[in-house]
Amino acid sequence: MTKLKAFMTQFYKLNPAQTLKGHQHRSTHSIALLNYCENSVGTAQLPGVCYMYGNRHLIPFAQQPGGDHAQYLCQQNGDQTLISNKYVLGTVNVTTNPSWNENFRFEFYEESGELICIITSQNYRCDDASRHMSRSSNQYDKVLYSCFSFSISVVIHRSLTAVHIYYRYSPTEDLRIEIIIYGIGGGRTVNDIQIMQHDSLIHRSSGLCVAFSRTCDFENGVRGSRRRTFTATLAAQLCSIFLKKAYNKIKELFIPASQTSVSHAKAACIRDLRVSNNKAFATSMIVFLLHDGLYRKTMNNVLFGNQALQIVQAIKQASASAHREAMTLITNTTMNLA
Q1: So which domain of life are we looking at (predicted)?
Q2: How far apart are CA 115 and CA 81, in angstroms?
């Protein structure tokens, strides 16, 4: 009990809500509400993964962890639920008129159904951990509280913001959510979201990551697409630059590159640039491929977290290099990328 209390007294009480936006070139905000686990390596179960990135390209959970899945295009405006289960509710909201605007909201709950934390595109507000401490201390003998951990780390760089969320809600199960927020000009941002959780929770979940076919259209299959990919366009040339920079970091970090994921990323990138006429969307190609590579390398939510900051640094470096090289192809801001 003494050891449990020692771990549980290390928390931050956030009031008022902490902003996700900062003025420094790099700043970090962290919170650990409860952090007590006998096994720091993670769970034995392999997590599945779901992505929503760029101009709302969705890759749902595959049938088995590490497997491939087709990619879908989600163009519905307004609120859409990405994931919903007993422990997390994640939604995205997109409006395109009069201009692009994308926001996300994630709510986290404990076993009893009580709200732990709310994280949005603008800020995050988490419950006072002292209430959880007294409750979990009284129920220490129950299996539920023999390993319980919830932590957030928000790292703000000049060019992007990274949000790392880890939630171990039982001794054998955990989940991780990674979000990269980057600007596309005019004060607008894109949120690239990666959700990793175990099959047992996936089967008890709903939302686009599970029931994708209801509101999203097929875009690219596991063996590519028969649709025209516009490979001779300026958009395709720009996407090739970003893909090359992603490959360089993949080799440098010794992480795998799924050919299905590369096919998805190319299809998404070319479409986004042709539709938006904005090369900034190509950043999502690098974000997706590096996150996916680390997922396939670790297949573990804790081990992923150990290297997450390194991946963010690689994303930042690769994106900056790609944007500089892309400027050699774009002679003016009104060039048609289609």
Answers
A1: Eukaryota
A2: 18
Alpha-helical (H) ranges within the chain are 2-8, 129-138, 199-202, 234-253, 259-276, 283-298, 301-326
Q: Name the nearest CA neighbour of 257 among 222, 290, 282.
A: 290
What residue has token string 């995050």?
A: 124
- Residue 282 makes CB contacts below 8 A (sequence gap 6+) with 238, 239, 241, 242, 269, 272, 273, 322, 326
Q: Is residue 42 part of a domain?
A: yes
Let me know if residue 33 belongs to a domain. yes
- H/E segment holding residue 45: none
In a domain, 331, yes or no: no
Look up residue 17 and give its DSSP letter.
Answer: P
Q: What's the whole-number average pLDDT of the chain?
A: 83
Question: Which residues, in sequence order, are bridge partners of residue 202?
Answer: none
C-alpha to C-alpha distance for 192 and 154, rounded to whole angstroms: 14
* Confidence (pLDDT) at 80: 93
Give the number of domains in the chain: 1
End-to-end CA distance of the chain: 63
Tokens of 214: 């209801």
How far apart CA 314 and CA 323 sit, in angstroms, is 14
> Residue 49 sits in which domain range?
2-326
Residue 236 lies in a domain: yes
Residues, the chain: 338
pLDDT tens-digit readout, 57-78: 999 999 999 999 999 999 889 9
CA distance 248 to 155: 24
pTM for the predicted model, two decimal places = 0.86
SS3 for 78-136 is EEEEEEECCCEEEEEEEECCCCCEEEEEEEEECCCCCEEEEEECCEEEECCHHHHHHHH
